[in-house]
Amino acid sequence: MPRDVVVLGASSGGIDAVKTLLAGLPGEFPAALFLVLHSSADAPGVLGSIFRRSGRLPVLTVTRRERTEPGRVYLPAPDHHLLIEPGQVLVARGPKENRFRPAIDPLFRSAAQVYGPRVIGVILTGGLDDGTAGLWAVKQLGGTAIVQDPKDAFVPSMPLSALRHVRVDHCVRLAELPELLVRLTGETLVETRHEVPESMTIEVNVAKEDNALDAGVLKLGAPSSYACPECHGVLMQLKESGRLRFRCHTGHAYSSAALLSEFDEAIEKSLWNAVRALEEKTLLLRHLATHEHTSETAEATDFVRHADDSEQRAHLVRKALGTGSD
Question: What's the pTM value of the predicted model, to 2 decimals?
């Protein structure tokens, strides 16, 4: 049994890292390589053309179900998860995971579900911790886990998270990765069976756009005290080897770090809205004070006093945001 399925995830700094990797792989590479880089929904979809110029392997941007072949690189179309089925790859617009679509975890889980020990999972440079849960799934079903050396990564957060939570087989510098992949894909494994946990099947089906409730999402964990930032549904709490993740009943999924980051962004947005409202109120009050028949009237004086109070409140909120001066 060969190791002939390589799944790779990256985020910040990932384009240059993948270009370096592809440049080092031979044209007769014996495995299919499936790649997810975090990108926005309105990304122009030019990664395929960039990576075609980087190495000798054909690069295909997947827009529908495709038959897979060794020696090819598969990328998702923008705003789609990349998912693996036996002998095939497809894209789907399932719920975002860790605030992204495409996300790394769905790709890794689907590969582990189908191919088990034949899978090599690779985490490269990136922020936060998308990919940790997926690499854990690869390892859980007998696959091989590889992480870029954090000291070698443009952004080390993703490799560091994987190293903390997964029994990684190899931690290497990017320059060493092509040779390692060639060696591992050239080895033959003893044929083994892998039993896929029901929870993994549920999460893969959700990524494939199955209705999350029908797929069994409520079986994944107990309800938490937190609401999904995306749809405001209750988040279920999932425990994996002591690590917490969250998924709501419509399917959105978050690691602890991604959920905290989402809350931080929501708080900052709310505070900036408060600053805007207070400063608009200040402008209105001063405008009203100026346009009274006389600035000596009690009403005009009251307007000025309230404007000063509103201005001070805006200043305090700006300080909370870290943009106010002392």
Answer: 0.88
